[in-house]
Amino acid sequence: IVSPSGIEDDCFIQGIDTDTYSVRFMPRENGIHNIHVKFNGVHIQGSPFRIKVGKVDADPAALHAYGNGLKEIKTGQKTDFIIDTCNAGSGVLCITVDGPSKVAMDCTEVEEGYKVRYTPLVPGDYYISIKYDGYHIVGSPFKVPCTGADLAERGAQETSSIVVETVQKISKSKQVGPVLPLFKSDASKVASKGMGLKKAYLGKQNVFTVNATDAGNNILFVGVYGPKGPCEEVSMKHTGRNNYNVSYVVRERGEYIVIVKWGDDHIPGSPYKVERVRQLRIPPRKELALPWSFTCIANSFWLAAPLEEEGEIKIPTMPCDNRASR
């Protein structure tokens, strides 16, 4: 159970009956609490569940802040960040900057919420607190390192603040249900391999794997697009530690594109252009026309046969004295 400030609250689980449990917890903050319910490490349907605690008008948990002004900054350069207040109701927004010097700061209204601009004058660490109706938003306070030369006298600890009475804002999408968490991930570190990224056989399961173990946490999106639109059958299974098995079936001739995204970003190589291979078919027990031959090296072989039509070829193996097969 994660509180609006990001702290994990304790909960008490008690068995009621076979495969039935009750969960109790005591919230200590107002706002949206996220309840994560997992079975064998995988979220159950609907998880994480969002419940609202306390006052319903203003919702600090619905706010999030982003921008260069919350990352790394330099002295003498004006920087900014956005506070998104869509679907959070109206309330009192308080921004406080604590650091080695005071900062000139202003706040203006923008479409998605409010833009805060400030200019640091002394290098060091600045701590930016963003509160909504007295409660920290997710991620607050933010630690922002500042580099550069001293442009003002350094103080022990200086505080600059600004208070804004917000107006209610609704996003264009008018999303009122659960919002996606802010993921920290790097799609460039996702690796994918398998024959299903190179060739697609008609009517067969074409498979490939996706390894996102070192790419942080996010949502995997896979799509297969053919000559007549999206592929009808695509399945994906999580095998643990952000590893996935993906399979799809194509039923139409033509070119296919396989798209693999980790969150909003394509993984390396995506989109993949897949070569469509016609399924080989031969009537049962049909004999090959002579002459025919094949060459076998290790466990790979090439077969040369004057077939009148394409088909699937199965060659039974027979044990030899030298423990090979023929």
UniProtKB/TrEMBL annotation:
* Example of a GO biological process term: actin cytoskeleton organization
Query: What PROSITE patterns does the record tag this protein with?
Result: FILAMIN_REPEAT (PS50194)
UniProt entry tagged with the keyword Repeat: yes
Instruction: Tell me the ranges holding the Filamin repeats.
Output: 1-53, 55-146, 182-276
Q: Which UniProt keywords apply?
A: Repeat
Q: Into which family does the record put it?
A: Belongs to the filamin family.
Q: What is this protein called?
A: Filamin
